[in-house]
Predict the structure.
Amino acid sequence: MDVKTNPRKWLRPVLIVALAVAVALLAVALNYTVRAERNVRYVGMMNLVAEKLSKTVRGVEMNAENVFDEVAKNMDSPQNVIEALGSKTSLNPDVIGYFAAFVPNYFPQKGQWFQPYVHQDDSAEFVLTFVGSARHDYTKSTWYVQGVKEKESFWSEPYYYEDDLNVTNGYYVTFATPIFDAQGRLACVCGADMTQEWMIDQLRQIEDEVKNDELLNGYRLPGEDDFYIVILNDDGTSFAHPDGDVVTMSDDAFVANLKNHHHGMADLEVNGVPSRVYYTPLRRTHWSVAIVVKK
């Protein structure tokens, strides 16, 4: 009997093949659904984190601008500048210090360097320190050099400060603005300092909030992801990590996207671990917020 009269010989293989194809298609569809759901989740989480951090940063800016305005209105004498710097410190205790770094010899009686710094000491009280000197030539600092070129407020690149003055050593980031006198001449670069530890603490709080957000986490598909949130400098290195770890993402295309303030998703090796990275810039800063999901 040939196959035309005995369908059992060919029906079973056809069914097996059809079943295999159906299973494969189902697996592909399920994998696509899981990936799409996770992408939606992490993009939403990334945007929420960026929004919360942006509000935090803007709060610092608004309080600092009040101090800057006081300095701009009181540049008739060095003492009035000092009093202006200390007049608004209670507005934001998270700011570790406010300074006014004057153009060399702006006040002739103060000489080449005049940078009063009203800042917190170990007791969390604000004290006055004069930090400008030949040993600490602030005119060579990146924030001062940038301030001379700028016409409006800006955030500096993170930097490490270490000195034997009454100032806490560590990594800082400065929100600064150039201040001009009545003749339109640059008088000083005024700034508010935040520490890396402060930024890490803000990130921890926000990470806890989004990890417990019902809208973001209420209907996840099965499978727990291992992820963390990090703030990146525009060179791909981390400025703030919830655990204080150092993270480096050295992919050239990825770093170019950070420098150009792009947002997106990239598959990278992060500290040797294959990961998917969701990233977006923080407005008015050199930073991006990134969610790193280990594969």
User: Anything to note?
Assistant: The chain is about 40% helix and 25% strand. Confidence is low (pLDDT under 50) at residues 27-34. Residues 8-73 form the longest helix (66 residues). The radius of gyration is 27 Å.
